[in-house]
Design goal:
This protein has 12 helices and 17 strands. The chain is of the alpha/beta class. The chain has 2 domains: about 180 residues, Medium-chain alcohol dehydrogenases, catalytic domain (Quinone Oxidoreductase, Chain A, domain 1, Alpha-Beta Complex), CATH 3.90.180; about 130 residues, NAD(P)-binding Rossmann-like Domain (Rossmann fold, 3-Layer(aba) Sandwich), CATH 3.40.50. Strands 3, 4, 5, 8, 9, 16 and 17 form a 7-stranded mixed β-sheet that branches. Helix 5 crosses helix 11. It is globular. The model has no long low-confidence stretch (mean pLDDT about 95). The protein binds zinc ion (2 copies). One zinc ion binds next to helix 2.
C-alpha cells in the first residue's frame, strides 16, 4: 500500500509499505482525512524526534475496514477518530487520567505508523484505553480529523480557566491560535484579540469572528495596552518564539494567566523579567497534548463548532504529502488536509 515515510530531517517520501493486518488483535482503519500538524513540521525541521521510517500522521479520521474477532466494541464500517497515544496505563499520570503525560507513552505518527497511509493498524491497547472514538453518522469526517488539535486547544482553554467575561489575547494566528479563537467564541468570549504578522491569517481570524486582529508592527504592545490598560485576563502564546514570552507577561493583567501553548525549538532558553510574575501575581503555565477527557469533551461539541472548516486552506492527495510538508514548512496556508478520496 502507499504510505508516507519520514526518512530524515527535511525528507518525507511516499513509499510502498506492507499492508497491516489484525491477526494478533486490534483493527484496521482506512483513513478518509488526515491533517498535518505543526509538530509534524517540527519533526521535519529536526526540532522534534520521530522514528526514522515511520509513517507520520496523528490527526486523522476514517472507517474501520477490518477487525480481529475479539474486538467487540467496534464494527466494520464504523466512522472513527483517534487519540493517537498508547500509554502504559499504570504510572501515576495514567492512573490520574493524564495519559498524555505518561513517560512511557508511544504516539502513532511519531513512534509507530500513523495516518498518512492507505490503511492504519490500531492496536488493541488503543481500543482498551478508550482512545478510539465512534462518531455519529452526521459528524463531518473532515472536521473529525481535527479532533486531536481541537482537544489540545481545549486543554489549553480549560487550563487557563477561560470564561466568557474574560479578555483573551492570542499571540500567533496560525492553525492552533485560530482554533483557540473558535473554542473561545463557542463558549461566548467576546473580547478576543489576535496578534499575527501574516496578512492571510489575519484575514482568516476576522472571518472566524475575531474583531480585534493586530499586525505586530512597531508599538504593537502599546496599542494593545491603550485598549486594555490593565492587560488581558488570559494570554496564550501560540507560536514558539521565546522573545514573545516577556511581552506575553507584560500584556497579562495582574492575577492573570499566561499559557505557553506552542512548543519551542529544542534546548530553547529564555531570559524574562521574573518580577513581572512576582509583583503581578501572574501564573505562567504550559500545556501540551490532551487528556482523554479533553477528547470526550471536544467530541461532544465538535458538530456545533463554527468555522473549523475555514481553517482548512489546503487539500492534498496522499501522493502529495511531501509537497504538503514543503508548503507548510514555508508557512503556506493554515491547516493542510490529506483527502484520501481525491
Ligand atoms: Zn497534532
Ligand atoms: Zn503511564
Amino acid at each position: 500500500m502507499k504510505a508516507a515515510s519520514f526518512q530524515a530531517i527535511g525528507q518525507v517520501i511516499i513509499s510502498d509499505k506492507k499492508k497491516p493486518n489484525c491477526d494478533d488483535g486490534g483493527l484496521i482503519i482506512k483513513p478518509q482525512f488526515a491533517s498535518l500538524c505543526a509538530s509534524d513540521i517540527r519533526v521535519f525541521r529536526g526540532e522534534k524526534n520521530a522514528k526514522i521510517g515511520v509513517t507520520p500522521g496523528h490527526e486523522f479520521s476514517g472507517i474501520i475496514v477490518d477487525k480481529h474477532k475479539d474486538v467487540n466494541s467496534f464494527n466494520i464500517g464504523d466512522k472513527v477518530t483517534i487519540c493517537p497515544i498508547l500509554s502504559c496505563g499504570s504510572c501515576s499520570f495514567c492512573l490520574g487520567g493524564l495519559r498524555n503525560r505518561c513517560p512511557d507513552r508511544v504516539t502513532l505518527g511519531y513512534d509507530s505508523d500513523g495516518g498518512f497511509a492507505e490503511e492504519v493498524y490500531i492496536p488493541d491497547k488503543i481500543i482498551k484505553l478508550g482512545h478510539l472514538f465512534n462518531l455519529s453518522h452526521n459528524t463531518d469526517l473532515k472536521i473529525a480529523a481535527l479532533a486531536e488539535p481541537l482537544s489540545c486547544t481545549f486543554n489549553s482553554i480549560q487550563s487557563i480557566g477561560l470564561e466568557k467575561e474574560h479578555s483573551l489575547l492570542i499571540l500567533g494566528g496560525g492553525p492552533m491560535g485560530l482554533m483557540h479563537a473558535i473554542l473561545a467564541v463557542h463558549i461566548g468570549v467576546t473580547k478576543i484579540t489576535i496578534v499575527e504578522p501574516i496578512k492571510e491569517r489575519r484575514a482568516l481570524a476576522k472571518k472566524i469572528g475575531v474583531k480585534s486582529v493586530i499586525n505586530p508592527q512597531k508599538n504593537w504592545q502599546d496599542l494593545l495596552l491603550n485598549n486594555f490598560p490593565d492587560g488581558f485576563d488570559k494570554v496564550i502564546l501560540s507560536v514558539g518564539l521565546d522573545k514573545l514570552i516577556e511581552p506575553a507577561l507584560n500584556l497579562c493583567k495582574k492575577k492573570g494567566v499566561v499559557n505557553l501553548f506552542a512548543g519551542f525549538p529544542l534546548n530553547q532558553k529564555s531570559i524574562i523579567d521574573v518580577n513581572l510574575i512576582h509583583y503581578n501575581e501572574l501564573k505562567l503555565i504550559g500545556t501540551q497534548n490532551a487528556s482523554l477527557q479533553n477528547y470526550i469533551d471536544v467530541l461532544q461539541i465538535i458538530d456545533q463548532l463554527k468555522n473549523v472548516d475555514k481553517l482548512i486552506t489546503h487539500v492534498y492527495k496522499l501522493e502529495e504529502v511531501p509537497i504538503a510538508y514543503q508548503d507548510r514548512a514555508n508557512l503556506k496556508g493554515v491547516k493542510s488536509i490529506i483527502d484520501f478520496n481525491m
